[in-house]
Amino acid sequence: MKVSILVVLIVLPMLATIGLYTYAFVSTRWSEIDEDLLEQYSQIKGRDRLQTNTRQQNSVQFDLQTIRHAFRSRYGLFGYCLEYKWLPLLTIKSSSSSSGGGSESYESSRTPNIPFCQRRCQPNLQCPETGCCMSRCNKYPDCPSYIDEKNCIRLINETRYYWPEENCMWQSTWIGNQALPRYLKSDGETTKDFHYFAKRLRYFVMFTLFIAAPLFTFLALLILICINCVERFYSIPFAFVGFFSFVSFLNGAGALGIFLYEWVQDRLHRPDHTYELDQTEALVVALNPWLTYVEKLGLAFWICLAAVVTSLYTSLLSCCFCCGLQSEKSKLRFNVKNETYKIIHLPDYETE
């Protein structure tokens, strides 16, 4: 009866914790894109803001332009997928677009107005969807169909490459692919260097904690099995099970907190030098703040959160068992003396 209670209340949650951590470790569903919200904002919000600005007749005029923007999808502990989309976003109207007439206005009426778009190139280097010039195999797609990044030669140590199964650009964050950058105060770009140094350091700590969390749970499970199955391990205190479970909870909670901090920072508080187009893209995000709400936490994050909660549950329950085993009246108390008794049958003697 005692073993059955331990298996149901402690062993099974420990096995579930290890399984949840394993799924979260290999999964790429830590973050995903809300397609419905993306379609809603791209079709309605930009036009509403453009009409509001037109009615107010401000000195700064805005315009809706089709701009390339990258969203992080298929996010995992080893990297994330940059999914590029060409969206009508709100930008500041340039002087060339506000002037009417001429061949330029006729050309812009036929094709969408795309900033940073060069059209003077060979016909075989033009994107069929946008009409812009594209560069082959430069790790930044210039065409919505990704035809400029397909069938490219990929090196073994590359951290950014085209992922044909998901039709996106995979950006690796694995420790083995990217070494920890050096931070020297004598360099000119100290802010940028320190940003990437701290980011890589936090990733290293997060990855170490994610590895340690299921290992401590497995160690607590191993001690629990030894207590029940091996007689010589009866002397091991049951408190070790609760201790290692609590250490596993601290590691998992710390790793999950670092991941959530990094995820929020990349969405809401990104420095200008982290954008693909630097300050120009930062201006686009500032004029279209809804872009930061398109990315949302995926299934793997909530599974990892469930693993952390389960490890906390096992640690608290182990402490309760530890306190109960010390009581003389506890029904869960183990017989640690392991004494043996021999029954002796004495012959009956007849008395005269």
Report on this structure.
It is a single chain. The protein is α+β, with helices and mostly antiparallel strands. It folds into two domains: 1-30 and 189-330, Butyryl-CoA Dehydrogenase, subunit A, domain 3 (Up-down Bundle), CATH 1.20.140; 61-76 and 79-172, no CATH class. It contains eight helices and six strands. It has helices spanning 2-26, 35-56, 95-98, 102-110, 190-229, 239-268, 279-287, 299-325, and strands spanning 31-33, 62-76, 79-92, 160-163, 168-172, 295-297. Strands 2-3-5-4 form a four-stranded antiparallel beta sheet. Strands 1-6 form a two-stranded antiparallel ribbon. Strand 4 and strand 5 form a beta hairpin. Helix 1 packs antiparallel against helix 5 and helix 6 (239-268) packs antiparallel against helix 8 (299-325). The two termini are 52 Å apart.
Q: Could you give the topology of this structure?
A:
Elements (H helix, E strand, L loop, with lengths): L1 H25 L4 E3 L1 H22 L5 E15 L2 E14 L2 H4 L3 H9 L49 E4 L4 E5 L17 H40 L9 H30 L10 H9 L7 E3 L1 H27 L27
Antiparallel strand pairs: 1-6, 2-3, 3-5, 4-5
